[in-house]
Amino acid sequence: MYVMCNASKKPMNKKKLLFTGILIYANESKLNLNDFKSILPSGIYTNSNESKIEKFNLEYDKEYLKITFGDGNTGPRSPFVFNTETQLEEENPRNKNQIEPKENFAIVDFSTSFLWISNSKKRNAIITFFKEKFNKLNFVVKEIYDETLFIETLKKIDNISVSVVPNLWSNTNILNKVMCEEINGYGASRATIKFDYEHTRTTEFIKEKIRNILNNKNSLKQIVISGRDERNLGLILNTEGFARKIEIDASIDEDEMFIHDSVFNNLISKIDNEKL
What we know:
This protein has 276 residues and is of the alpha+beta class. The protein contains six helices and 15 strands. It has a domain at 14-71 and 96-142 and 249-276.
């Protein structure tokens, strides 16, 4: 007699990814899908110098361009790695001409000319890559809102973060005199104050505080204001401009690497829902 057992599949683990959306124009026009397909067909592209290598993997999907990218350095490279199971050193299997880039993800939505990127600090890498391939086009990040419209659109507040050279706090009218003197006494080169909220509705009192911060932006080193609009979609204002944000749950494999299809399918689904 044979007994057949169906092993239940182990549930796939997931991790959160936060995408920031910025509006990009080329020569004052929205990005054109046909132009991109002509000059940048699907495939792998690399940029390299003596020690650093950038890798971009492009794939088109209807009105979207899916981008997986990363960079890494060939050196310095330790000749040994430490095996946590044996507690011994072993020869490093990575060759001197190999890199181990940390993957980032991005999508260009040609219907809106938005670039959605998983690491906002890497957006210049994408824009520079486009500029190198389209040498006759000038790619620029466009403002989505002016400050007044941003405040009116902001229905819930998540957090506010403000950074400044300590001895300039007294110029901002954000903190009282005693707090300014106390912060200045630490002798730090930069002081940051962060206010966290529990999806608090933006009352007129909070809006006035935001206006006060923006009125003093010339004295501030950095501003980050994060919240949500009436449809609960993310909004970010920082010193680089305005942006949208979308958070997704993406599947990861046994090596805790994101599964690409899961990332892009979930992100496209969220973007499509935003258009409804």
